[in-house]
Specification:
The complex is a heterodimer of chains A (309) and B (271). By secondary structure, chain A is mainly alpha-helical. Chain A is built from 13 helices and two strands. Chain A is extended and about 75 Å long. The mean pLDDT of chain A is 90. Chain B is an alpha/beta fold and 271 residues long. Chain B has two domains: 184 residues, P-loop containing nucleotide triphosphate hydrolases (Rossmann fold); 75 residues, no CATH class. Classes of the chains: A mainly alpha (309), B alpha/beta (271).
């Protein structure tokens, strides 16, 4: 092939670069794989155990999903689930879990707002805003589960201390989302409010916060969603609600009851998610409010859509 | 009686001389149009007059006050209107009364009834009384700018400064917004300085004209002296025939608007 020297040079250049890239990729692959192997050794992962305990797990599966026969055809025996749900009044337990998430969100909100706003470089001048950011990062670095343990002296692990843990966690997480959102505000409206002769607090609330109040509501709902999930986890260590029922049944090896509890947890979490997502998309889209009739008529379809997401 | 007095005003941004030794005086109640091509220093001049930008040299006195920071007696209307999109037109107009309202009252919209009437009255002045409850974000560009004017009026200023208030609007809305601006200024006897780049609008609404070119004042005079040669001097690189050809010809005017609004982004960057 008759080509110019430049083309040949360019070709050589591309080949060299490509060879280097392939070598780097190979080295990386070997490194990741050896780290993976190390990790498996550390956690004592063994295929032998899987095989040995396999039948036991299959046995448990039978209890997780109890079967019955209807005219000789095997069916999932949902009545066993229902019996437990009804007997232990799991929906009322779900209420406790929901209350923990909800109260925790509201309790954490004022400090989240305060720290979130003060953490913004546009409100607090540069090095000082990092005091507030630092506090929020520290709170975030400690998981809610650990906060619940820290609050044990307040009266052991109970729904009350679990709610305190959720509130603390909310300050760190929600506050950070607020700070991030405030970085996005436009300068124009802030300047405009300044020219009206407003004081500093008014400039912050009208110039800045008014620009982000919809995203702030949306983020708060998102954190509420997460907090309900955390409430389930905190229940497992004794914080009450569905989580506690779940851990008790696990310790009693009542796998059918466990699965019944998990089903109620799923129902709770999905309902909260659907609610929060609906409200969020509604306030973001800025639609006209839906009439109550429309709301009822469209519900099955919206439900199906949300589930399909 | 001299009301606004600008003396030897200069402003540098790094290597760019945005304003160079600009001086003029404006008597009370005059409606002044500042004209100039993009980057001529119009925005900088108005921002200095409002105290949003600190001049490198020179002084600005409005009334009795020497301007060094935003002052409640001076209201500003911005090219991007800078109203709060999430709030209603009414709530936006009401922000004009912030300096007379305590923080808690303003946050809970517990302003004096007089202030609320003032806000609605200002919305009526700009023809938006019926749209008062509408969210600003859902309004058209022209309506949003009129909300901006209403906010400025609620401030109860003596002086109205408008930085390219119609640069982002179509010719029809531009006419309308300029009309409301002039009417409000006359009704409330406000000393007004408006920067514009459309010569036809300037001729139609201006009483007095100040021409800027490369940061220097190249013209200062009243309507009778504002001739084609003057326009030529202010915009020597622009095809003046086309800008002034037919004032009623919207297609032409919108071409001119497009051309200048593209160039205007440079103006923004330079402040």
């Amino acid at each position: 092939m008759d080509v110019s020297q430049q083309v040949i040079d360019r070709y050589q250049n591309i080949r060299r670069k490509r060879r280097i890239r392939v070598t780097i990729a190979l080295v990386l692959f070997v490194v990741v794989m050896s780290l993976f192997f190390q990790a498996l050794v550390r956690v004592g992962f063994s295929v032998g155990e899987l095989i040995r305990y396999g039948p036991q797990f299959l046995d448990a599966l039978d209890q997780y999903f109890p079967q019955t026969t209807v005219y000789g055809i095997p069916f999932l025996d949902v009545w066993q689930y229902w019996d437990f749900i009804d007997e232990r009044n799991l929906f009322s337990q779900a209420g406790i879990t929901l209350a923990m998430g909800f109260a925790g969100t509201i309790l954490g909100f004022p400090l989240a707002l305060l720290f979130g706003v003060l953490g913004s470089g546009r409100v607090t001048p540069f090095p000082f805003n990092f005091i507030f950011r630092g506090v929020m990062s520290t709170i975030r670095a400690i998981p809610a589960l650990v906060w619940a343990l820290i609050y044990v002296p307040l009266g052991g692990v109970s729904p009350f201390t679990a709610t305190m843990a959720i509130a603390t966690d909310t300050i760190g997480n929600l506050g950070r989302l607020y700070t991030d959102e405030l970085e996005e505000v436009e300068d124009g409206p802030i300047e405009a409010i300044e020219t009206t002769g407003a004081n500093r607090l008014q400039v912050i609330s009208f110039g800045m916060l008014s620009q982000v109040h919809t995203p702030f509501i949306a983020w708060t709902l998102y954190i509420f969603e997460i907090n309900v999930r955390i409430a389930v986890t905190l229940g497992i260590i004794g914080g009450g609600g569905l989580g506690q029922v779940l851990s008790t049944q696990q310790r009693l090896f009542q796998f059918t009851n466990m699965m019944a509890t998990i089903l109620v947890i799923l129902t709770l979490i999905i309902s909260v998610e659907i609610f929060s997502q609906r409200v969020r998309s509604y306030i973001r889209a800025d639609e006209e409010p839906m009439g109550i009739l429309e709301l009822l008529k469209g519900f099955p379809q919206r439900m199906a859509e949300s589930l399909g997401k | 009686m001299t009301y606004i007095s600008v003396e030897n005003l200069s402003k540098r941004f790094g290597d760019t001389q945005a304003l160079e030794d600009v001086s003029f005086e404006i008597p009370e109640g005059e409606f002044v149009v500042v004209l100039g091509a993009s980057g001529s220093g119009k925005s900088t001049l108005l921002r200095c007059m409002n105290g949003l930008t600190k001049p490198t040299a020179g002084t600005i006195t409005i009334g009795e006050t020497e301007i060094s920071e935003p002052h409640p007696d001076i209201a500003m209307i911005f090219q991007q209107h800078n109203i709060i999109g999430q709030m209603s037109a009414y709530a936006n107009a009401l922000t004009g009364s912030l300096q007379r309202t305590s923080f808690l009252r303003s946050v809970f919209q517990l302003n004096d009834t007089d202030e609320k009437y003032r806000a609605l009255d200002a919305l009526e002045t700009v023809g938006l009384l019926d749209e008062a409850r509408q969210r600003a974000r859902q309004m058209s560009g022209g309506q949003q700018q009129r909300v901006g004017i209403a906010r400025a009026l609620v401030q109860e200023p003596n002086t109205l400064l408008a930085d390219e208030p119609v640069a982002s609007l179509d010719p029809g809305s531009s006419q309308q917004v300029m009309g409301y601006l002039l009417a409000a200024a006359q009704e409330r006897n406000l000393t007004t300085v408006v920067s514009l780049h459309q010569v036809n609008l300037a001729r139609q609404f201006g009483q007095r004209f100040i021409g800027l070119k490369d940061g220097q004042k190249v013209f200062d005079g009243y309507a009778e002296d504002f001739s084609l040669e003057v326009v030529d001097k202010i915009y020597d690189t622009v095809d003046v025939d086309r800008l002034t050809a037919d004032e009623d010809d919207f297609a032409d005017a919108s071409d001119a608007t497009d051309a200048s609004s593209t160039a205007d982004s440079t103006d923004e960057v330079m402040g």
